[in-house]
Amino acid sequence: MTDLEDLKAEALSLLAKAESPEKLDDLRVAFLGKKGKITEIMKTLGSMDAEQRKTFGAAVNKAKDEIQALIAEKKEKLEAEALNLRLKAEAIDVTLPPRPDTEQGRIHPVTQVTEELLAIFAQMGFELAEGPDIEDDWHCFEALNIPKSHPARQMQDTFYMKDGGGDILRTQTSAVQIRTMDNKKPPLRIVCPGRTYRCDYDMTHTPMFHQIEGLVVDKTTTMGHLKGCLVDVMKTFFEVDDVPVRFRPSYFPFTEPSAEMDIGCSRENGEFKIAKDKGWMEILGCGMVHPNVLKNCGIDPAEYQGFAFGFGIDRMAMLKYGIPDLRTFFEGDIRWMRHYGFIPLDEPSLTTGLSLNGGLKL
Ligand code: DAH
Question: Ligand 1 pocket by C-beta < 6 Å: which residues?
Fold first, then answer.
């Protein structure tokens, strides 16, 4: 009996010191394993007489059960401690700001501003139309009432395709007006964003730039609609209730009367900002569609009239987001993109349903 008590005491003191599952397992083997101390004692039962075997056997079994239970209890405790330690070590503090992720891309200001403008026009009921970058003389000039000898051709320094086939890089998205009217009957209300090309290079001009063209043709369309539409677009785009705007008479071969719209702005440290009484910046050309243009597309000018406008997307981006040099838009400098680019949003944009790939291809 004393042996048993001593054994239990030994097991208890070893148990207290076992601080890992491995140590605990060693302990189990040392006492309860095939050659364990308790097992060895059990083996001695055979040599005892019946009465002795009964009492001693019961005592050994009890000691065995007790040691087993203590090991199990300690095991549970150790496991719980290990889990707590892990939970502490791997804890996630959801209140921490996200790690700066240098891999995340940015939306180019031109893409951003195009989407913003399309969203505004979509809400006004405009449809999207697109045309090719490589155009022919007819769509880019002739049909727009700009014949070969016309001085207006000098206004737009054209890139000609090398093959001599007469194709050009379009100098204006106005070409898409013609493609639209060739393919669809009025009433029309379309916008066409896209790349345009002219041989020009300085702070505010690059050989490739972006325009957005608008065309509305209906039976009762007036200059009043044109002004209302453009002023509303500017207010919404610049998120200012009273954008200073003025219309000046101008000349474009494809509109009559023609106008240019200026926006009131200041220029500080090379950055343009919307401002009253500081100066004007020309922002777009517009006017009532010339009867010759309608006729060139088989639309009767006695029945239909319309308005058109065209403006630089890049210039709008410079103005809205204070970007001073247009040339930097197309240099592909990743530091510039991190500074001026936009973080993509997961939410669907307002332009869903008027995506650049979903529109009318002409
Ligand atoms: N296409 C002209 C340009 O690139 C801009 C323009 C002026 C477009 C008047 C129009 C318009 O639709 O009506 O300079």
Answer: 172, 174, 213, 252, 255, 285-287, 308-310
